[in-house]
Amino acid sequence: MSLREELDALRLHTALADLDHVTVLRVTGEDAFDALDAVVPADLFLRDGQMLHTLLLQDDGQPVVDLYVCRDDEDFLLLAEGLSATDLRSWLQAAWPADLH
User: Fold this and answer.
1) Beta bridge mates, 70
2) How many other C-beta atoms can be found within 10 angstroms of the C-beta atom of residue 71?
3) Contacts of residue 49, Cβ cutoff 8 Å, sequence gap at least 6
4) pLDDT tens digits for range 81-90
5) CB–CB of 44/28 below 8 Å?
């Protein structure tokens, strides 16, 4: 495959990769948007099928993890690099407002 064909494949098609270091977590329920909106420092205006790159931040502004927020109808898929699923879930639950647990 030529370099041009490889670049076209990357730009025009979808790839699926197994990335062991990336955690995927689904956030569901009627308060899913409100819960994520409370902890993500970016505007969560996402249409179904869109993805947003953002961070999760500690109270002092230091990054906790790079995060991709993906909209799946009324649910969200979170892709995080650097935290286990258990650690990501625990961090989110601790950061969410008490009325959204």
Assistant:
1) 51, 77
2) 19
3) 71, 72
4) 889 999 999 9
5) no
